[in-house]
Structure formats: structure tokens, C-alpha cells
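Please describe what follows:
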Amino acid sequence: MDVFPDFGSVGGATDLRAIVGALLMFVLITAVLMLIVCAIVWAIASSSGNYQAATKARTGLFVSVGAAALAGAGVAWLNFLLDIGTRL
């Protein structure tokens, strides 16, 4: 199973590959940085007794994990649509 979309039958495939790759990289780097920052803030806020900040940091951590999962699902969805498009 490929992780990156199959652009074999799409016109302008090189441009589309570059755009999707750049967007996926941007989303994943942002999600990982957000995950690291939120985990650190959650740990510091929990240890200092600031439960309101800890709750917001925990929410941010879950959002970053969800964003990374949606980015991966987006690649799978694009693969599916490109596969359907070649059969139409």
C-alpha cells in the first residue's frame, strides 16, 4: 500500500505531486511542533497546579494528533479518488 498518491494517469501530475507533498509536509511539521509544545505546557501546567492551562494544552495536544491523522487520511482519500478517476 502506497503512502503517497499515485499520479500516473493525471495530467500535470508533477505539479500536483509538488503541491500535495508541500502541503502534507507543512501540516505534519506544524502538527508535530504543536504536539511538542502542548505536551510541554500540559506537563508544566499540571505540575504547577494551573488546571485551566493544563486543560487547554491537553485539548491542543488532541487537536494536533487529529490534524496529523487527517493529513494521513487525506493522502489515502486522494489515492482513492485518483484510482476511481482512472477507471471512469
